[in-house]
C-alpha cells in the first residue's frame, strides 16, 4: 500500500523549520514558525517555568492518569486568565475547560464536537488564516469557507466587508475568530469593532469558535482578552481554544485548553460531557507536565508575577524589533512605506512580500519566511536585522 503513495507536501510552517535545520549556509535566518527568540536568537525556557518544574519534580508523587478533561485546578487557572477573576460566566458555573495538548488539539476536539455532536457542516475562517486551520477543520469533516478580513491596500482590517460577510453566513454555521494577534496578519479588530462582530454573530445565529493563542503578546494579558470576553456575555454560547505555547514558551509540552461557555450551567455540563467523549476518542486524556507547570505558576502569586514580567519583556522586545525593522528597511532603501508593520500586533508581520520574493529570500539569502509573506518578528535580533533588511530591500526593489 505504501508503495503506491506519493509524498505529502511539507507543512507550510513547520516544514520550513525542517528545511532551515538542513540548510548548511552560515548566517541563515529563520523567521518561519511562530517561536519567540531572544536577542541572542535563543528560545529559552522561562525562569518562572524552570522554578515551577523544580517544585513539581520535588512534589509530584504519581504518574497516574489525569481525568479525561485534565485537572480541576488547571481548568480554574485557565478560566481566570481568559475571563478575569469573578466573571459572571465563572461565578454562574456555565463554563467548563478541558486541558488539551496544545491549541491545535483544542481546535480539533472543538471541530469534532461541532461536526459530530453539534451537527455543524461548515466553518468560516478569515482570509487569510493560520495555514493549519483549514486542514484541522477538514480532518474533522467540516467544510471550510472564508470571510474577507485583510485589506491589502490599507494593510489593515477590511472591517466593512468582514461584517457584511458575517451577516450573510447561514444560521447554524460556525465562525472561527482569532482572539488577538491575528495569525498571519497581526491585524486585530478594535474593541468597538469586536462588539459589532459579536452582535452580528449572535444576530445570525452563527456559532463562535475562538482561537486564542497569543494572549499577552499584543497589548497585554488583560487587554488582549477584551474581544474574547465579549463572547462570554450572559446567556451566550461559545467555544474557546487557547494555547500556552507562546505566552509560557511551552511549545513542545503541548499545553492549551478547550473552554465551553453555555447559556446555562446545565447546558455547559451537557456540552462538556460530549467534549469529554470526543477527547477520549482522540487522545484519551491529556499529558500532565505542561498543564501542571501552568497551574503551578498561575496559583502562586510570586511565580505569577514573575511570569507576567517575562510576558511583558517578550512583548516589549517584539515591539522594539517592529520599530527597528521599519527603520532599517527604510535605511536600506526598501521600496514602499512600512510603517504599518509597527501597528501590527503579536509575533507576526504580514509583509506584503509575494511568492517569488519569499522564494528568492530563501534561495539567495537563506532567509526563511512563510509563503504568503508572513514574517516572525519574534525571530528578529539586532544582529540579523541589517542582513535581513538588506536582503528584503534587494528582492523588493529599492525606492
Ligand atoms: C505558527 O503559526 O507559526 C505557530 O502557530 C506554529 C505552528 O504550529 O504553526
Which strand order do you get reading across the main beta sheet? 2-10-9-8-7-3-4
Bound molecules: (2S)-2-hydroxybutanedioic acid
Q: Largest sheet, if any?
A: 7 strands, mixed
Helix content: 40-55%
Strand and helix map with partners:
Elements: H1 14-22, E1 29-31, H2 47-59, H3 72-83, H4 88-91, E2 95-100, H5 102-117, E3 122-127, H6 133-139, E4 143-148, E5 150-151, E6 156-157, H7 159-166, E7 174-178, H8 191-204, E8 207-212, H9 226-230, E9 238-243, E10 256-261, H10 265-282, H11 288-299, H12 301-331, H13 340-343, E11 348-350, H14 355-365, E12 367-369, E13 374-376, H15 382-396
Helix pairs in contact: 2-11, 2-12, 3-11, 5-6, 5-10, 11-12, 12-15, 14-15
Can you characterise this structure?
The protein is of the alpha/beta class. The chain contains 15 helices and 13 strands. It has a seven-stranded mixed beta sheet with strand order 2-10-9-8-7-3-4, sandwiched between helices. Strands 1-12 form a two-stranded parallel sheet. A two-stranded antiparallel sheet has the order 5-6. It is globular and about 60 Å long. Bound molecules: (2S)-2-hydroxybutanedioic acid (LMR). (2S)-2-hydroxybutanedioic acid binds at residues 13-14, 33-34, 130, 132, 183.
Amino acid at each position: 500500500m505504501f508503495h503506491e503513495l506519493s509524498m505529502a507536501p511539507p507543512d507550510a510552517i513547520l516544514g520550513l523549520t525542517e528545511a532551515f535545520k538542513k540548510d548548511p549556509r552560515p548566517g541563515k535566518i529563520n523567521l518561519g514558525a511562530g517561536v519567540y527568540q531572544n536577542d541572542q536568537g535563543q528560545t529559552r525556557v522561562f525562569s518562572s517555568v524552570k522554578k515551577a518544574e523544580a517544585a513539581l519534580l520535588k512534589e509530584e508523587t504519581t504518574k497516574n492518569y489525569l481525568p479525561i478533561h485534565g485537572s480541576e485546578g488547571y481548568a480554574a487557572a485557565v478560566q481566570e486568565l481568559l475571563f478575569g477573576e469573578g466573571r459572571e460566566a465563572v461565578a454562574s458555573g456555565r463554563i467548563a475547560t478541558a486541558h488539551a495538548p496544545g491549541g491545535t488539539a483544542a481546535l480539533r476536539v472543538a471541530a469534532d464536537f461541532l461536526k459530530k455532536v453539534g451537527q455543524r457542516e461548515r466553518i468560516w475562517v478569515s482570509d487569510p488564516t493560520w495555514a493549519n486551520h483549514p486542514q484541522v477543520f477538514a480532518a474533522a469533516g467540516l467544510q471550510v469557507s472564508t470571510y474577507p478580513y485583510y485589506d491589502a491596500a490599507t494593510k489593515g482590517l477590511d472591517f466593512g466587508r468582514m461584517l457584511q460577510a458575517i451577516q450573510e453566513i447561514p444560521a447554524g454555521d460556525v465562525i472561527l475568530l482569532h482572539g488577538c494577534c491575528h495569525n498571519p496578519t497581526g491585524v486585530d479588530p478594535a474593541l468597538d469593532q469586536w462588539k459589532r462582530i459579536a452582535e452580528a454573530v449572535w444576530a445570525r445565529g452563527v456559532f463562535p469558535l475562538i482561537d486564542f493563542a497569543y494572549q499577552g503578546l499584543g497589548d497585554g494579558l488583560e487587554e488582549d482578552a477584551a474581544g474574547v470576553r465579549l463572547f462570554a456575555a450572559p446567556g451566550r454560547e461559545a467555544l474557546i481554544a487557547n494555547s500556552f505555547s507562546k505566552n509560557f514558551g511551552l511549545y513542545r509540552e503541548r499545553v492549551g485548553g478547550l473552554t465551553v461557555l453555555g447559556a446555562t450551567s446545565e447546558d455547559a455540563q451537557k456540552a462538556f460531557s460530549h467534549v469529554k467523549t470526543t477527547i477520549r476518542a482522540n487522545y484519551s486524556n491529556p499529558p500532565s507536565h505542561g498543564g501542571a507547570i501552568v497551574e503551578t505558576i498561575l496559583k502562586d502569586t510570586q511565580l505569577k508575577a514573575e511570569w507576567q514580567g517575562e510576558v511583558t519583556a517578550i512583548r516589549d522586545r517584539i515591539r522594539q524589533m517592529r520599530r527597528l525593522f521599519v527603520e532599517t528597511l527604510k535605511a536600506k532603501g526598501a521600496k514602499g512605506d512600512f510603517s504599518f508593520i509597527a501597528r501590527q500586533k503579536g509575533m507576526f508581520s504580514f509583509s506584503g512580500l509575494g511568492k517569488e520574493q519569499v522564494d528568492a529570500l530563501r534561495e539567495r539569502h537563506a532567509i526563511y519566511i512563510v509563503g504568503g509573506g508572513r514574517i516572525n518578528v519574534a525571530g528578529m535580533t539586532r544582529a540579523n536585522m541589517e542582513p535581513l533588511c538588506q536582503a528584503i530591500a534587494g528582492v523588493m526593489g529599492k525606492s
